[in-house]
Amino acid sequence: MTARVIDGRAEAALLRAQIAERVAVLQARPGLAVVLVGDDPASAVYVRNKDRAAKAAGIAVETLRLPANTSQAALLELIGRLNADPAIDAILVQLPLPAHIERRAVIEAINPAKDVDGFHPANLGRLVDGMPTLVPCTPLGVMKLLATAGMPVAGTRALVIGRSPIVGKPMAALLTNADATVTLAHSRTRDLPEECRRAQIVIAAAGRAEMVRGDWIGRGATVIDVGINRLEDGRLVGDVAFSECLSHAGAITPVPGGVGPMTIACLLENTVLAATHRRGRE
Ligand code: NAD
Q1: Residue 94 catalytic?
Q2: Cys-Cys crosslink for 185: which of 44, 81, 189, 265, Cβ 3.0 to 4.6 Å?
């Protein structure tokens, strides 16, 4: 058996085209502010890709690049201004932040209605409560890819590897809300291979290159690889040993070309959602 490879690029292109159509009929273009502090090379690439994708969808995106020595107070002041700016519907602060800036203070300063990453505690709380809200883009993209794979989520055993507040925890909440039976694994999980074998859906988000091996995957399981890891030879790989898992899984996402493009498309979707909510034109 060879797994079906889920084409995240194609799915993201479809979603982006739909978003561009929705934007075209809005009276005013949605406004997205992307804030990048410092010069982390990976963050710079992510921000450039988000900027480009937003422009292509007709979103009025403003990317604000601040030096690495920007004080927390100055960043909070900028967020205050963006919160008050009627032309800005959505605010994204690219993570990670420099060590002298406290991530929680920054996220909590963003108006939850403009929190397009869905990281504000009010939005995460609403998500856990099963209420409509701005949902973190990567887990939202994963749910869309599961739908693409034709994988019914309700009633299945799902394993999420990684418990970060931006990927693993919201992912587990979304799967729980969709009626999966969810196990949330992490660095202290005792027997990860066995947890994997029991799962019909495996979501890998640990940031460990090719950690999930082929013989960890139950026959026909759906495997979604969130990980992005740069090897010493420069290659980009996920958390899943892709070629090994191909002969075990029923469907699998590649890296690159899987979850990454969907994350950006979901950011655009969240921006339009925030704009239509705020302007009362849903
Ligand atoms: P993180 O470092 O904040 O969290 C990693 C989690 O993995 C932790 O909860 C940790 O307990 C768990 N973990 C670490 N080693 C483990 C092990 N050996 N076994 C089991 N669990 C283990 O990372 P994050 O921000 O959640 O990101 C995870 C990965 O996803 C990274 O590779 C990141 O680059 C990638 N990512 C991709 C996208 C995308 O759009 N594709 C978006 C966000 C993050």
Answers
A1: yes
A2: 189
